[in-house]
Amino acid sequence: MTDPIIETHDLTRVFDGVRALDRVSLSVPRGTVLGLLGHNGAGKTTLVNILATLLPPTSGTARVAGLDVVARSRDVRARIGLTGQFAAVEEQLSGMDNLVLVAKLLGARSAQARRRADELLERFELTSAAHRRVRTYSGGMRRRLDLAVSLVGRPDVIFLDEPSTGLDPASRIELWRIVAELVTEGATVLLTTQYLEEADRLADTITVLAGGSVVATGTSAELKSVVGKRSVHLTLTTAADVDAAAAGLRGLGMQVHTDAARATVSTPVDAASDLAVVMRFLDEARIEFKELDLTEPTLDDVYLSLTADRAKAEVRG
Amino acid sequence: MNAETWRGCGAPRQIAVLTVWCLRTLVSDRRVVVFSVLQPLIMLVLFTQVFGAVANPANFPPGVSYVDYLLPAVLVTTGIGPAVAAGASLVREMDRGALTRFRAMPLGLHWVLLARSLSDMSRVGVQSVVLLASGALLFGFTAHGGVLGSVAALLVALLVIWTLMWIFIAFAAWLRSPEIMQSIGFVLVFPLMFASSAFVPVANLPGWLQVVATVNPMTYAVNAARHLSMGEPVGTSVLLAITTSVGLLAVAGFLAARGFRRPLTR
Ligand SMILES: Nc1ncnc2c1ncn2[C@@H]1O[C@H](COP(=O)(O)OP(=O)(O)O)[C@@H](O)[C@H]1O
Ligand SMILES: [Mg+2]
Predict the structure, then answer these.
(1) Do B264 and A86 count as a contact with CB atoms less than 8 A apart?
(2) What pairs with residue A208 in β-bridges?
(3) Which family does the entry's similarity section mention (chain A) (predicted)?
């Protein structure tokens, strides 16, 4: 396989005693999407800023397109597009002028710059607002323009820091479509998000950050299978059955959660054999069920359990 | 499909594109344009009326009026405002808009500062020309040193203002606080302007103010511009103004570029 296009090794950044990033090592293959998932303060922006050469690491190394982000920062900048958490566009210029300015600074001639601007305006459905000042744009339009401006030079690597924060659902779906399109065109995308759904939808690989450290990495399916368990949800007929089933399953060493109002009993299951145990028990105890559901863990469960572990570890440490 | 990929351009083109962008931003605000033209006129009216009333004609050689003496000084002092403003606006704009985007682009960030200073200086240049023209046409200013003398005075004034501007840009790049910039502006503007040879001869100032005026770089700039404009023997004043300016400009430019390149933290 080809070399990873983004690679970090023990990347650490300390801000006056705060470890915003703590020995983060990751590797992103070309043409894929890495989702960096984490709550506020997890270190997502710090990581993006280091990779985008905006911030030097305290220690550790990072390479983008094979280039060290500190030693070769200018060459890295020639290959990346960054859409930060706050729109980096000029309010008193039009959308068109913003795009043309950046295109020219990247070396495009006037005619080329305008052609590229037209192309991007069309793609991001901003053509009708092309000549209006950005000041008059809605939040969603501004975000789209910001993303469009980051794509002017056709970068190899695109960083999107919380791209859908503050977007309405329609704009969010539109953004997801654009990200998917960029990847089919060969770009590599690193996006940060607090939304599990977004990471699940867009990312080939998800890296979960908590307190500046990577707490898990994998595909969404891998994360679920490694950390989360599937659960059996039984809907029973009577309250007495609920009590009997809960007591019986606990007796078999299972963790049981009951919901008396809905007459449900839930228990995590590790493997098919566990499910068989549950079934055999119900059969022998002659407890009838109306419904039996087997649910996959959501990414939310994964995230909560991972970050909860991490928080516990921190309290102990 | 796989059309042009742009990876950046050389310094001259960066400077040109950035300067045109700054100028367009400047001109797009009509108020700035109007105010730029009005400001030197207001200064000239105020100073000639206020100080002209008390200036003693006996202090001037025959044929030299107070406006002849004052105008080259105003040429220098009108630039103090724009110089301070350049620092203030940099602080204001540093963490938003295109200035943040440029940090992740293959650009020399120092060219961004250069472009901003050039566009601000073009405004000062226009103001200076307005000042000279209106002085001659409306206020009876006579350039005893001829057109050449006035042009030379103008160039020295622009160099000194450019230096002052870079000093404020350097402050802005390192301090990054609107409040501190404003305080520095308040603290420095009036002494720079008034504790100098701009409005009255230094010899006429009280003793302690003479000391301040003697170390005030504006005094040298004003003296040089005045000598050139009035066609007096320049002595060492021009050389002194130019060398101190260039020296300070180099230091301030270097510090500004260094300071501006430091990461934004928020
Ligand atoms: N410039 C800074 N100075 C001090 N602390 C900072 C700075 N930037 C970030 N931090 C701290 O580093 C941690 C990670 O921040 P950040 O990378 O912005 O997280 P996220 O983007 O995931 O919300 C937080 O605790 C934050 O307070
Ligand atoms: Mg963030």
Answers:
(1) no
(2) A37, A216
(3) Belongs to the ABC transporter superfamily. Drug exporter-1 (DrugE1) (TC 3.A.1.105) family.
Q: Which residue of A has its CA nearest to B28?
A: A92
State the pLDDT at residue A316. 44
Q: Give the minimum alpha-carbon distance from B247 to chain A in angstroms, rounded to a whole number.
A: 29
pLDDT tens sequence across A109-146: 999 999 999 999 999 999 999 999 999 999 889 999 99
Give the DSSP H/E element, type plus range, for residue A7.
Answer: strand A4-15
**A13 CA: nearest ligand 1 atom:** 12
- CB-CB contact of B233 with B251 (8 Å): no
To test ligand 1's pocket by mutation, which of A24, A45, A190 has the most ligand atoms within 8 angstroms of CB? Answer: A45
User: Which candidate from A55, A84, A107 shows the least CB-CB separation from B263?
Assistant: A55
pLDDT, average across residues B205-213 = 89
Burial A218-230 (b: 16+ CB within 10 A, else e): bebeebbeebbbb
Flag if B13 and A86 touch (Cβ within 8 Å).
Answer: no
Q: CB–CB of A102 and B101 under 8 A? A: yes
Contact A289, A235 (CB under 8 A): yes
What percent of chain A clears pLDDT 70, i.e. is strictly above it? 92
User: Minimum-distance ligand to the CA of A165?
Assistant: 2
Q: Which band of pLDDT confidence, cut at 50, 70 and 90, is reported for residue A312? A: low
The helix (H) or strand (E) run that includes residue B75 is helix B66-77
User: Residues B193-209, buried b or exposed e (16+ Cβ, 10 A)?
Assistant: bbbbbbbbebeebeeeb
pLDDT band at residue A307 using 50, 70 and 90 as cut-offs:
low
| Whether A39 contacts A195, CB under 8 Å | no
**A9-36 CB burial, b ≥16 within 10 A, e <16:** eebbbeeeeebbbbebebbbbbbbbbbb
* B202 min Cα distance to partner chain A (Å): 46
Interchain proximity A54–B264, CB inside 8 Å: yes
Q: Quick one: tokens of A40?
A: 């506020």
